[in-house]
Each structure stands twice: as structure tokens, then as C-alpha cells.
Amino acid sequence: MGQVDVSPSSSIRDRILDALQTAESEDAQSTRARTLRLVKCAMRDRDVTARGRGHCEGCEETDIRKLLETMVAQREVSAREYDESGRISDAEREREEIEIIQSFLPQPLSGAALEAAVEQVVEDLEASKLKDMGRCMTELQNRYPGRIDTGSAGKAVRRALG
Questions:
Q1: Which of 16, 81, 105, 151 sits between 20 and 30 A of 8, alpha carbons compared?
Q2: Phi, psi of 123 (to 5 degrees)
Q3: What is the 3-class SS of the chain, one letter each residue?
Q4: Contact 35, 101 (CB under 8 A)
């Protein structure tokens, strides 16, 4: 149940559908297969909405990433509520689903990789003052969509500019 192949040539949608096919062939009633079916249905729902707005190919990669992030957040709330009400097995199931869904999300930049990305953006934008922080943060989010934790990135940008 580790990280799924994140090669640039495969989209999140393709990786999810491939994983679903594999999970169903191994055990159609497994938590992994059930969770991936829920994700597939949610993607299909977003596709219908996108087509209604004129996007014939369905929803975009960023929409799928946001969908997965929302699904993770929903399960975190549910797991916390289950814990508080003493439904431990339900909370564990929610956490297992979180792990499955998160395996399809890009891993956030941290540590040396975040520092290098910040240094590159500061250099490219020729930023030198704290008032350039907004431009730097916007550029980081554009270059690394879904991979920037604004809290840690903000601290790294402050250090680079300070």
C-alpha cells in the first residue's frame, strides 16, 4: 500500500484507474478496491460537471488533486469523530482510506528540496525584500502545484529574503 508510481507520464487519473483494476483483480472486497471505487465515482461526478461547463475531456488534473485532498480531509474529520465516540474500528478504516488516497497525491516539498526550490524562485524573481514574499509564494505554488505547504514554504521564503 505504499506510494504509487508518480512518473510524469502518468496522470493521477490513470494511476488511480490502474490501481483500481489491480485491486479488483486481487480482492474486489478489499478496503483498497472499495476506496478506489469511491474515488472513481467522485472523479466521474466531477467529469460530468466539467462537461456541463464545456470541458469535453472532463475534469483536469488539478481538479482531481483537489478532490483527493477533500476526500482526505473528510476522512480525517470522520476518524476524529469516530475516535471521540469510541468507534475505534471505524476510525482505523478511515485512516486506512486516508493512506490509500494520499498515495496518489504528490508528496509535499520539504527539507532540502523545499529550500532549493525557494532559493531558485528567489533567484529567478530577483527577490530581495520581504515585500517580495507574495510574489515568491505565488511562483512556488505555480511551479509546484499541490506540493507546497504554505506554512513551511513561508518560513523558508522569509529566511531566504531575510
A1: 151
A2: -65, -45
A3: CCCCCCCCCCCHHHHHHHHHHHHHHHHCCCHHHHHHHHHHHHHHHHHHHHHHCCCCCCCCHHHHHHHHHHHHHHHHHHHHHHHHCCCHHHHHHHHHHHHHHHCCCCCCCCHHHHHHHHHHHHHHHCCCCHHHHHHHHHHHHHHCCCCCCHHHHHHHHHHHHC
A4: yes
Output the pTM of the full model: 0.70
Q: How far apart are CA 54 and CA 59, in angstroms?
A: 10
In the predicted model, what is the mean pLDDT of residues 12-30? 93
Q: Of 100, 82, 77, 103, which Cα lies nearest the Cα of 31?
A: 100
Claim to verify: residue 31 and residue 88 sit in the same structural domain? yes
Q: Name the CA radius of gyration of the chain, rounded.
A: 19
Residues 96 and 115 in one domain: no
- Per-residue confidence at 6, pLDDT binned at 50, 70, 90? very low
pLDDT per position as a tens digit, 95-140: 999 999 999 988 888 888 888 998 999 889 888 888 888 888 999 8
